[in-house]
Amino acid sequence: MPKMKTKSGVKKRFKLTAKGKVRAGQAGKQHGMIKRTNSQIRKLRGTTILCDADARIVKKFMPYG
Q1: Burial of 50 (0-12, 13-18, 19+ CB in 10 A)
Q2: Which CATH architecture has domain 8-60?
Q3: What is the pTM of this model?
Q4: What would the pLDDT profile of 11-47 be if each residue is shown by its tens digit?
Q5: Domain locations in the chain?
Q6: 16 and 65 Cβ atoms separated by less than 8 Å
Q7: Which residue of 6, 20, 59, 62 shows the fewest CB atoms closer than 10 Å?
Q8: Can you tell me the distance from the alpha carbon of 10 to that of 39, in angstroms, rounded to the nearest whole number?
Q9: What b/e sequence results for 13-41 when a residue is b if at least 16 CB atoms lie within 10 Å of its CB, and e otherwise?
């Protein structure tokens, strides 16, 4: 059997932690910063761990992740 390919959009956007959880960038920082409070902008820095339901979908596209 040939190897399964990882979806190229998924490998750019998501990483797996050592325990197998899915890490993704925080949503809500692309535009519209003027209407967000400074505390909201601070909280949206960095990355976050996806919930189990979303992580299950992402893992389908990462067969060897």
Answers
A1: middle
A2: Irregular (4.10)
A3: 0.82
A4: 999 999 999 999 999 999 999 999 999 999 999 999 9
A5: 8-60
A6: yes
A7: 20
A8: 29
A9: ebeeeeeeebeeeeeeeeeeeeeeeeeee
Phi, psi of 35 (to 5 degrees): -90, -5
Q: What is the C-alpha separation between 28 and 38, in angstroms, rounded?
A: 13
Burial (CB count within 10 angstroms: exposed 0-12, middle 13-18, buried 19+), residue 2: exposed
DSSP for 21-61, written as a single string: PEEEEPSS-SS-GGGS-HHHHHHTSSEEEPPHHHHHHHHHT
